[in-house]
Write a structure and sequence with these properties.
By secondary structure, this protein is of the alpha+beta class. It is built from seven helices and 32 strands. A hairpin with a 2-residue loop joins strand 7 and strand 8. Helix 2 runs parallel beside helix 4. The termini are far apart.
Length: 529
């Protein structure tokens, strides 16, 4: 009897599912776009059928591709994945998905160009959109009133025509092991964007290495085979985007840094790649929240700096974890440090946590927003421009306000070598020394004086440096510009020097494109008793 009842129950369930139409719970979203292929994923409440209809026009979706479905959370719910191949590069396509009686609306996407092609592209970087109970739809606001509204206002055409991809350095949800958060807090709030633009995340600490993260995303599988999708890379035109895992349990695995070093060595020799954008969750340094810093990220920074020095190819790393925006730069290299949070998680307000004014950072803001990267593949001198688009914070609202911007060119055009003035062997006081150089000059159009590096040494070869000052043209920290009205052409050495000692001085200038001049001709002075 029990066996008979079980058979009847299964039969009854089959009939009910046959009569009841499936429901698309997570609308289609795009993954792993290539010039000739793309992956489309979605979730239904039940049903194995995974079909995508697609074509070059909205009215003629004459192509049909069948994919696979797999369980999620050990229920009838199914995640569907369809890989479309045979596409043309840099071409717009239209598509819709179907599972049983559930059919989506029509969306569109645009395939990437081949690596090395001269196509100007945009990408958006944002992170830490985990649910905040005080502002439960903040991520929706960032997507719809932020990214989509910004592109609608500033660009012509569909979002897929103007935005190549979105990268997310972690913390997509509050607790990655809680199934419901993925649908309600991440996919539902971003569905109007990721149905048309591919998304490439890396895991943050809030993902908790959850199976849900790895089931919901189909990322490039070109990292270490035994750690598939924990680290990977994606090429788009002249830029290589690298995803890394800075979380506990993976940041200590030596294979990740070994893989990164080998990849960067190959990238340095790849003539089709001009720039490297890496993304990982944890910061190396954080002005708003020191406890969030990780040594692993510092190791990544050193590898990227070495890559840029060897190859003359600028690089950057996007990160999150700290809920605010920061933009800095390495002292000796064309490498940017960019915190792209917060896209939803509660802001780390100034003074709320332990912070520090680091020399590397030029701007730090406790605000919501996203970063727009525009990559110009100009053959003469490729460049990329970063713009911080702000939504303000809980005290001051900002409607997609441009709050920071920087452009970096691949080709180095050095500023003119500065000349030290008013410095000779006359006796000088030991407690305070004023040094001065000439005005900034450069052959680079629109270049201005963005930084100075002053050094004082007890040896002419600067092997024993006793004073090393690196200052930017601005330093926004704790809501004020600490460099306001500071003339970068002079420096006051206000530390005690030794009696009757000869000191050697030199200076170099940097423009806003991260180009350093050569060091000035060395001059020297002697202190009195």
């Amino acid at each position: 009897m029990m066996k008979k009842n079980r058979v009847l129950s299964i039969f009854f369930l089959f009939i009910v599912q046959f009569l009841i139409a499936q429901k698309i719970e997570i609308k289609p979203y795009l993954q792993d776009a290539e010039p000739t292929s793309i992956k489309i994923m979605w979730q239904t409440d039940f049903g194995e059928e995974s079909i995508v209809y697609w074509g070059l026009t909205e009215n003629k979706l004459k192509n049909k591709t069948i994919g696979t479905a797999f369980d999620i959370n050990f229920t009838d719910k199914r995640v569907h994945e369809v890989t479309i191949t045979g596409l043309k590069r840099f071409t717009t396509y239209y598509y819709k998905v179907q599972t049983g009686k559930a059919v989506s609306k029509i969306y569109q996407f645009k395939t990437p160009p081949f690596a090395g092609e001269s196509k100007k592209i945009n990408l958006v970087a944002m992170s830490d959109m985990q649910y905040d109970s005080q502002y439960p739809t903040k991520f929706t606001e960032i997507v719809e009133e932020g990214v989509l509204a910004y592109f609608d206002k500033n660009y012509k055409g569909d979002i897929s025509d103007n935005l190549a991809m979105v990268v997310i350095p972690g913390d997509l949800v509050v607790t990655g092991s809680v199934f419901s958060q993925w649908q309600e807090h991440f996919f539902k709030q971003s569905e109007k964007l990721f149905s048309n633009v591919p998304v490439y995340p890396v895991p943050g600490n809030h993902e908790r290495n959850s199976d849900f993260y790895f089931k919901y995303f189909s990322l490039p599988k070109n990292g270490s085979p035994e750690y598939a999708e924990h680290w990977w890379f994606k090429d788009y035109a002249n830029t290589r985007i690298i995803g890394l895992d800075s979380n506990n349990g993976y940041r200590d695995i030596k294979e990740q840094l070994e893989w990164l070093k080998e990849l960067l060595d190959k990238t340095a020799k790849n003539d089709k790649i001009d720039f490297v954008f890496a993304q990982l969750h944890h910061p190396h340094k954080s002005e708003l929240w020191i406890p969030g810093e990780e040594d692993f990220s510092g190791k990544v920074v050193k590898l990227l700096e070495t890559f840029s020095k060897v190859s003359n190819k600028p690089s950057l790393h996007f990160f999150g974890h700290t809920h605010g925006y920061s933009r800095g730069q390495s002292k000796e290299h064309k490498h940017l440090w960019v915190n792209v949070a917060s896209a939803g998680g509660a802001i780390d307000n100034w003074g709320e946590f332990e912070g520090r004014d680091y020399d590397e950072f030029t701007v730090t803001q406790d605000e919501y927003g996203f970063v727009l990267a525009t990559i110009d593949t100009d053959k003469e001198n490729p460049s990329f421009t970063l713009k911080r688009i702000s939504r303000g914070n809980n005290v001051k609202f900002r409607d997609n306000e441009l709050r920071d911007s920087i452009t970096v060119f691949k080709k180095t055009i050095q500023p003119k070598t500065p000349i030290l003035v008013d410095l000779d062997l006359k006796n000088h006081p030991i407690h305070k020394m004023f040094i001065k150089a000439n005005d900034f000059k450069s052959d680079k159009k629109d270049a201005f004086h963005a930084a100075s590096n002053w050094q004082v040494s007890t040896t002419a070869d600067f092997s024993k440096i006793i004073y090393n000052s690196w200052k930017q043209h601005e330093n926004w920290y704790y809501k004020e510009n600490r460099q306001k009205n500071d003339d970068l052409t002079d420096e006051i050495i206000d530390r005690k020097l030794s009696n009757e000692t000869i000191y050697y001085v030199r200076v170099r200038y940097r423009d806003q494109f991260l180009n350093w001049s050569d060091w000035s001709v060395v001059k020297y002075f002697k202190t009195v008793k």
